[in-house]
Amino acid sequence: MRTAFLFPGQGAQTVGMGADIVQAFPVAAELFERAGEIIGFDLRKVCFEGPADQLNSTTMSQPAIFVTSAALLEVLRTSPATANLRPDVTAGLSMGEYTALYAAGLISFEDGLRLVRKRGEAMQAAADATQGSMVSVIGLDEDKVRQLCTEASEGELLEPVNFNCPGQIVVSGTQGACERAERLAEKYGAMKAVRLEVAGAFHTRFMSSAAEALRAALRQSRISQPGSIRVIANITADYYTSADGIIDGLTRQLTSPILWHKCMERLLAAGVEEFYEIGPGRVLTGLMKRINRKTKVANISDAASAQAIMK
Hints:
Elements: E1 2-7, H1 19-24, H2 26-39, H3 43-49, H4 52-56, H5 58-78, E2 89-92, H6 96-103, H7 109-130, E3 132-138, H8 142-153, E4 158-165, E5 168-174, H9 175-184, E6 192-195, H10 208-219, E7 230-231, H11 243-253, H12 260-269, E8 272-278, H13 283-291, E9 297-300, H14 303-309
Parallel strand pairs: 1-2, 1-8, 2-7, 8-9
Antiparallel strand pairs: 3-5, 3-6, 4-5
């Protein structure tokens, strides 16, 4: 039976995440402590106590989710009951791809944390310079979403960028175009359109400056050649085959659409039957229900769910 580990991206964060894991498992506490030493501030305090505005910022949420996910992974790796639970493949949604690469042994915890921090800072800087936004459109297929973007753009940037599951596509662009998309979505038959609490137009050309900064940081990191644990790339729904390919994929990811739906279809077609979402929240578990109702995902997002899987 083939197994996949899935890791959430930005948006999965909630104040209090990680606190129960740290209390229950010393290895998780050690990892949070190490994270604080690497980035130079107490990440635990922000994760456990907030405030929400600080945790939700692009610069903070990315390292916070990475460390919380890595802590849960460390708990599974070091517990005798789950030590034999190994993935054949890993995948992560957007920023979660860094956790997927860490879980596959292709980047170190230290490099992964530094990269997601740099990624968050670069994305925030690009967002401040471009003033964009994002809207989640519920209940439309890709053709209808593209028609909506054409009308709502009025010559400004607006394009579908997150293909999460059937009937859930996120569009990204200028603030004005996103406002028009919200208003026009019902005309095209959408159930609803929801403005996302994000800093800018992620996964579009508005993130070009961030992509350049990130590529420089990736080139200074140690990235291993892919081995026995395969990692699927967000932007191609194909497996990484080289370290250079990983650098290119992570760089292009900032300005390219995320093909999560296709990634999951690819894993299902390859015979993956066991899926584990490891990290805060239940976003990926919910998306899989929409992609393939019969596929179950074991959700490991807190101390209770980690302990349950060890029984």
